[in-house]
Amino acid sequence: MTSSDHLLDLIQSRPDIQELLRSSFSFDIERKRCGDGLRLASGRSLEPIAGEFAGGAYLLCTEENGRQPVVFASSEGKGGLIADDLAGALEIIIGLAWQDCLGFSGGGNVKVMQVSAQHLERSLARDNPEIAEERAAVAAALSLRVVSVADLVIRLQEAASRTEPDYVVVDEDGQAYGSPFGEYSEPRLGGWR
Predict the structure, then answer these.
(1) What is the mean pLDDT of each run of 10 residues along the chain (193 residues)?
(2) Exposure class string for 107-142: b at 16+ Cβ within 10 A, else e
(3) Is 0.85 surpassed by the pTM of this model?
(4) Residue 84 CB: number of other CB atoms within 10 A?
(5) Which whole-number Å values give the CA distances from 17 to 31, 124, 134, in the listed order?
């Protein structure tokens, strides 16, 4: 059994944690079909492990050395590497508004991502005052670390920067997904609030 299998089994066995992951962190192991038909440009297959509300998919990539990096493919045609293993991916998923952080990255600039992450954290805390407790509960249940936002941003930027050439996602028609990095540094209408 791989560490990914162990984590997925643990999530499955804990309905309370499964619900928190689904409702607060948009990681739903019941939506595995979201990634059907996707593969890497290298031809390696991907295993869908979870989906999210907007139709995106979390996918495991098994490598020859036994590593199982996690790739995300959005429903908008962007995708790439988010972590070198499922534990690292889950730490990012629960600890950071990671998709928006990538979206407002100024093309992958880690300093822009750090600023975006701080704005996103304030917004998240306003919308969900229990987010810190929910993060801690999921981390404790899955034996994950609660990592600082600044460190998670660095990890996410480093992983996403390694998307090309080995982790480019393609669909059934061979169309490559776009870069995980968005070009803007803040929301276009009204900036950060």
Answers:
(1) 86 96 96 83 90 93 84 94 97 96 94 94 94 96 95 98 94 92 79 62
(2) ebeeebbbbbbebbbeebeeeeeebeebbebbbebb
(3) yes
(4) 17
(5) 16, 19, 9
